[in-house]
Design brief:
Elements: E1 3-8, H1 15-21, E2 24-26, E3 29-32, E4 35-38, H2 44-54, E5 59-61, H3 65-77, E6 81-86, H4 94-102, E7 109-113, H5 118-133, H6 138-149, E8 152-158, H7 162-167, H8 174-180, E9 187-193, E10 196-203, H9 206-218, E11 223-230, H10 234-248, E12 257-259, H11 262-268, E13 273-279
Parallel strand pairs: 1-2, 1-6, 6-7, 11-12
Antiparallel strand pairs: 3-4, 3-5, 8-9, 8-13, 9-10, 11-13
Helix pairs in contact: 3-4, 5-6, 9-10
Amino acid sequence: MNVQIVCDSACDVPETLQRRYGVLVIPLDIRVGQHFVTTAELTLDRFWALVAETGERPQTAAPPPGRIIEAVRPVVSGGHRVLALTLTGRLSAVHRSFVLAAESFKGRMVVFDTQNLSLGAGVQVLAAARWAAEGHDLETIHRRLYDLRARVRLQAVLDTLDWAERGGRIAYLMPLIRRTARVFRVKVLLQVVEGEVRLLGVQRSWSGGMEMLYRHTLAWSPLEDVWVVHTRRPDEAAIMAQRLTEALGWPSGRVPVVEAGPILAAHVGPGAIATVAVLATEPRRGGG
């Protein structure tokens, strides 16, 4: 009996790796102006073009349980068990939609909250998919995910707070940011901790924010894996990846660079850069 790994599109698993490991991705809904589509129908270039054309901030929504059931039913009917990973349930209704959908499959579908965003969730999806490909059963993969989840750190620098503030997902942080910074237009370093976004620090300049991101990422050493994620900032993301690669003594290309999909982009806007660090199995604690 094989295990099928499923995730939501906000996990930002690169398409090449989706295909390599046979990950089934459930698209979320997105609205830009009067355009209502799923992420499966929207390329990144088209997403940003719509944002420019309409001048409106995108809105996102969880997939309805029916969409998940429709996608998963053939898998379960084929004799497979399903392990579905979702972005954090503390900031989104996506996890709840998957839980509701799983009720239709009487124990043959298990839902796991990654307590993370974007590639912070995606690295967990990829690990689960590799373990499934190696022939591990669902219970083993599920158990391993709890250990991995505790070792994943996502931190990000935002070029602007406008998108995050209007999206409302980090409204609880805005008073703290205002108290911390006399001038509101600062570069903010955020971190995902146990499914919630927390403030790590502020910088007045972009270069200062990037340096803080670099230092905080390395502070988690020793590291098992690192990714760099960005929204429309490929050159600077590549520089960050190269700096981290050299500092860690890893071979060139060891730190992948990925552009975030429309869901994260809709909430952080253009110009954000994040790192996803996976701590080694017995890490030295750090990172602030």
